[in-house]
Amino acid sequence: MSSVRKFSVILMALGMLMFLAGPALAGQLDGTGHVEGDATGSASSSTQYENNDEQPQPNPNSMTASIIVNGWGPINKVFGYGGNTGGVTEYLMTENITNGMQLFTITDFHLDLFWRIGGADQASVALDGLDFDWGAAGPSNTPPPTSTMLLNCVNNLNEDWLDYYSTGAADVVLPGQMFTLNYSVDVPDAPAGTTHLVIRQWATPEPGTFVLLAMAGVSALLFVWRKRRTA
Asked: Which CA distances in Å does 110 have to 102, 106, 164, 213?
């Protein structure tokens, strides 16, 4: 086989390897994920098209999560960071959330963005490229955030925050109910030492819940006081 033909075969083989590896193996996020904090569940990502921010075609990159909320504390969805690509990769999140609290109703839900660097979480700051994306003017194919419950969604205070609120008494998440959030996240090249992207979120109870919690606390104190008096 001539040297020219050998070279052509090598080029074809390299091209096939690059095609098979493709963007799916070289994404901003590496596909791994987990859930931490006051919830149980799972999280993962899939990267098919790097540096696709504000592209007109439908977004093939996805983030998914399924969680059961166990309390009012913070919940972290943690996604492995796969390395810099010299641009911004946009992901569509689909998140199924179940109210696992037996007594309490959820009336709003809040999300915030962080980098995990050296084991510590560092909040995203304005204009660092990491944000919840509501789309730009023109055919960007970035849909606005939506939800099947808590239908009022805003992020007018900060590009790194996303807030879903109840629109009224019928728009709440009762114990055992599940609702789905959909939103987009822009993931840029991360600061040096970044190992993960973290989406932190927490639920807020309806006002009456605070009354119930206070009453439960008072009842517990009275029980202890009475037990000590009768001891």
From this structure: 21, 11, 6, 21
Domain spans in the chain, listed from the N-terminal domain onward: 3-225
Angle at 79 between CA 75 and CA 80, to 5 degrees: 140
Radius of gyration of the chain (CA): 23
DSSP 173: B
Chain-centroid distance, C-alpha 98: 15
Half-sphere exposure of 214 (CA within 13 A, CB side): 5
Token pair 């996604």 in the structure block, residue: 79
- Cβ atoms of 63 and 91 closer than 8 Å: yes
Count CB atoms within 10 A of the CB of residue 214: 10
Task: Give dist(CA 163, CA 223) in Å, integer.
Answer: 39
Q: How many residues does the chain have?
A: 231
* pLDDT digit string, tens, across residues 38-91: 999 999 999 999 999 988 889 999 999 999 999 999 999 999 999 999 999 999
Alpha helices in the chain (DSSP H): 3-21, 207-230
- Is this model's pTM higher than 0.85 or not? no
Query: How far apart are alpha carbons 29 and 79 in whole angstroms?
Result: 7
| Residue 29 token pair | 């996020």
Backbone dihedral angles phi then psi of residue 226, each to the nearest 5 degrees: -65, -40
